[in-house]
Amino acid sequence: MTAVRELVRSVSVRKVDATHLALGNRWGKRLGRGPHEARVYVQLDGTAALDVGGEQISLSRGDIAFLPRSDAHVIRDQPTTRVHGFGACPGMQRTDDDAYETDGDVDGYMIVASLHHGAEAPWLDLLPAVVSLPSEKLAVAGWLRETLDLLRHARALPESSREAIATSLAHVLFTQAIERIESRQDLLRDASIASVLADVRAAPEQPWELSALAKRAGLSRTVFVERASSLLGMPLGTHIRALRLARARELLVTTNAGVKEIAARVGYANASAFARAFTRASGTSPARYRESSILHDVKT
Length: 300
Fold this sequence. Notes:
- It holds the Pfam family Cupin_6.
- This protein is an alpha+beta fold.
- 41% of the residues lie in helices and 20% in strands.
- It has two domains: 2-179, Jelly Rolls (Sandwich); 186-299, Orthogonal Bundle (Arc Repressor Mutant, subunit A).
- Strand 4 (48-52) and strand 5 (55-59) form a beta hairpin.
- Helix 1 (138-152) packs antiparallel against helix 2, helix 4 (191-202) crosses helix 5 and helix 8 (259-265) crosses helix 9.
- The longest helix has 21 residues, at 159-179.
C-alpha cells in the first residue's frame, strides 16, 4: 500500500487561502463542494461542530478536520444551531486581510484553509469525505497547525515558497486520508500499478515503454493503460510529459544549466522539441520563464 501513497505526490497546490476566525455567540456556515480544492479546519480554541458526508464531527481545542474534496458541509458552533442558505456567517466582520470576527464575546478561534490543487484524478473520490485528526496526535497535528499559521502570515514570501509549503502540507493531509482506506479493495486492486507509477515519477526522464511497464505490473498493455489512466485522471503519456516539464521548471529556477542540458536531463532528445513542449504547456519559453523567476525573487 506504500506504493499507492505515491499518488499523493501527483497533487501540487497552486494556491492556498488561510483565514483566522474569532468566533462568539451563535454562528454557522453552509458551503457547497469546492471545485478542485481541499479544505482544512483547525480549532485553535473553543469548540465547533462539522457535518459532512453524513458524518458529524465535534472539534475541540487543537483538533483538525481535513476535507480532501471540500465536499458540501456545514460548520457551526454546535449541532443544534440552524444554518440557512449558503455564504458567510451572519454578523461576521473583516478585521484584517485574512481575519474575521463575529459579533459578541469571542470564545473560540479557528484557522480555515482552502488548498487549490487543480487535481482531477478519480482516485480522490476513493478518499473519505473528512479525516479527523484529534489533538492527541501531536506529532502530526502540531506540525499542521504551525504550518497553516506560517502560511497565514507568509504574505512576504515569494509565491513559489508559499506553493512549496502548501504542497508539503497537502501531501501530509492526503497521506492521512489514504491511511484511512488502506483496506479498501478498489484501491488495493491497483497497488501494482501505483508501484510502477512511483518508479515513473522517480525518473520521468527515462524512455518508458508502455509494454514494459505493463509487464512489470503483471497486466496486459491494454488493461494497464486503461487502469493507469483511470488512476491518474489523464493518459500516462500526458502524465509523464507533465512530470518532465515540472522537473524542467525546477531546474530552470534552481540551476544555471543551459536549456539544451536541461532538455537532456528531463528526457528530451533535442532542445527544440523541449522548448516547443515547454512553451505549449507554460505559455512562455524556458529562457523567459527563468528570467521572470529571477525578476520575481529580486522584487520580493
